[in-house]
Specification:
The longest helix is centred in the first third of the chain and has 46 residues. The radius of gyration is 31 Å and the shape is globular. By secondary structure, the protein is of the alpha/beta class. The strands form two sheets. Strands 2-3-4-1-5 form a five-stranded parallel β-sheet, sandwiched between helices. A three-stranded antiparallel β-sheet has the order 6-8-7. The protein is built from 26 helices and eight strands. Helix content is 61%, strand content 7%.
Length: 555
């Protein structure tokens, strides 16, 4: 909108100059044609010029007023967008892998003879039914599928049949159990949906501003939206008299932290509007089955439909590896091995990724196809057993540190920076590390050294269950994530029950946050360090405080 305003101003400037030049040239020509006019003629010429100037000035005045109004609307829109936005609004969406080439194409396929009942999702996109549920096992690819659908042009094309000429807005949200509090809350959901709607349809700014102002809270940058305001504002948007229909894609209902019945009530409330429909995804928990599973025409059981996708993914992943192709010259061997992986995967993409990792490791050691087939046979069927077999490769001397690290990062309830992991290691050895550390911005060289060392340590302790997500900041400020929520669930069941009373994970996190504050280069990172300090200090019981000054400060 800023660019559009700038263009309008430039056009206006050009027109003002042009009009003045025309007036000037007209006056000169008039004088040349009628030299020495009588006083009456002179007055008529002046009157004619004044009339022209008056018309031009009225036009310019009108356009300036419109431009001023446009500027006010732009400012209002920016305030609304900034007030709804939060730092992690796209974090989960951006971390989800894009669908592998040619996988999930079937979900938007409209050939009933080839795909039979799989086309029911297309029927839902075109039709007037309110909610479509994508259900599936942990790791079956629900989030990847939701991301694929929500940004696919075909989906928008099919939705246009439902909208019957009205404009279609798409808003999406991906709950994340391991993220910040907003990423797994109803408030985060509502703010994200409103943000997407407003960004796609700026003309709704007046509706949103009036809805919020009606509760006595003006629009500002303080992000002070209450749940009630967000819900009522979204309802006001759904009732706005505009030729618009809205489709929400909400992923990971099972990753919501709160009263599930309240979330289900919210979804039913949203879909009650005539111009809204929702595509949702979750694990097949009983409450979701009861709420959404009654009509088979509105449900996809994901793992039942992805065998061909998994087979293609396995074959192409193995064929793209030079070591593997050098070992296996027979195409039939590829397909046979892929068939075995597909059979054992039972529709779980995450299991397949871990299996391929094992097979490619075998290729690195020049395993024969027979050896690789044996690898597949020995892989556990379920994910927890698979994770257990991965941790079985952790050297015994690292296992205690694995348990201690897992205890701390699970207590954090949010992905930590690489630097935080480095400081946690230092604190295990020297509890006073954060107090003694100097206060100076970290250099690029030290950041890279810290990142290299920490990444190697995490790989040795977790064997790939944790991974560093790339970012635009220094490598020490990249985030460390579980490869999947199920990996976090497994580590919690595996290590949280263990004693280790010698450490208080919240105290460790407070110390690490102080060390992060001392080395952070930006105000944003320092602010986050302070928030983490406060959040974790709030979890420390007085009886668990040690004699360290920072623990007393935490309290």
């Amino acid at each position: 909108m800023g660019v559009e305003d700038k263009i309008q101003l430039e056009q206006m400037r050009v027109e003002i100059v042009g009009q003045l030049e025309r007036l000037e040239s007209g006056a000169i020509v008039g004088c040349a044609i009628t030299p020495g006019p009588s006083s009456n003629e002179h007055e008529e010429l002046r009157s004619s010029d004044c009339d022209k100037i008056s018309v031009i000035m009225k036009d310019l005045s009108s356009r300036m007023a419109k431009l001023e109004k446009s500027g006010q609307e732009t400012n209002k829109l920016q305030l609304l967008l900034q007030g709804l936005h939060f730092d992690a609004i796209r974090a989960r969406h951006d971390r989800i892998q894009d669908a592998h080439a040619r996988t999930f194409q079937w979900v938007l396929e409209s050939d009933p003879e080839r795909l039979m009942d799989r086309t029911k999702f297309v029927d839902w996109l075109r039709g007037d039914r309110g909610i479509f549920w994508i259900r599936g096992k942990p790791g079956s690819g629900k989030s990847t599928l939701m991301k694929y659908i929500a940004q696919h042009p075909k989906a928008l094309e099919y939705l246009s049949a439902w909208s019957k000429g009205d404009r279609v807005l798409v808003a999406k949200y991906f709950f994340w159990n391991s993220g910040t509090s907003l990423e797994k809350s109803e408030e985060g959901l509502l703010r994200s949906l409103l943000f997407d709607i407003l960004r796609s349809s700026p003309e709704l700014a007046d509706t949103i501003e009036k809805a919020k102002s009606s509760y006595g809270t003006p629009v500002d940058l303080n992000n002070n939206w209450s749940r009630h305001e967000l819900l009522k504002t979204l309802e006001a948007v759904s009732q706005a008299r505009l030729p618009v229909k809205i489709c929400f894609f909400i992923d990971g209902l099972d990753e919501y932290k709160g009263d599930t019945s309240g979330l289900l009530s919210l979804i039913q409330r949203l879909v009650s509007a005539l111009n809204i429909k929702l595509c949702i995804s979750s694990r097949p928990w009983t409450e979701f089955v009861d709420a959404f599973g009654c009509d088979e025409a509105l449900v996809i059981q994901l793992e039942d439909l992805t065998q061909s996708d998994i087979h293609r993914y396995v074959v192409e992943s193995l064929e793209s590896n030079q070591r593997f192709t050098a070992l296996a010259k027979d195409q039939a061997a590829y397909n046979s091995l892929a068939d075995e992986v597909v059979f054992k995967a039972k529709g779980v993409f995450l299991w397949v990724e871990l299996a391929i990792r094992s097979l490619l490791q075998g290729a690195k050691y020049a395993d024969s196809i027979a050896d690789m087939r044996k690898r597949v046979e020995e892989l556990p069927d379920d994910l927890d057993a698979f994770f257990e077999s991965i941790l079985a490769d952790v050297p015994p001397r690292y296992l205690q540190r694995t348990a201690l690290t897992a205890r701390v990062i699970l207590a954090a309830r949010r992905p930590l920076y690489v630097a935080m992991h480095y400081f946690i290691d230092e604190l295990f050895v020297n509890p006073g590390f954060a107090l003694e550390a100097s206060s100076a911005p970290i250099s690029c060289v030290d950041s890279q050294a810290m990142s290299d060392k920490t990444t190697a340590r995490l790989d040795g302790r977790f064997k790939g269950l944790l991974e560093v997500a790339p970012g635009s900041d220094l490598s020490a400020f990249h985030r460390v994530h579980f490869i999947h929520r199920t990996a976090g669930d497994y580590l919690e069941s595996r290590f949280m029950a263990m004693g280790y009373t010698s450490i208080n994970p919240f105290s460790i996190l407070c110390h690490a946050a102080l060390a992060l504050f001392k080395c952070a280069r930006s105000r944003v990172a320092k602010g986050l360090a302070l928030r983490m300090f406060a959040e974790n200090a709030n979890q420390i019981d007085e009886g668990e405080l040690s004699s360290l000054k920072i623990d007393q400060a935490s309290r």
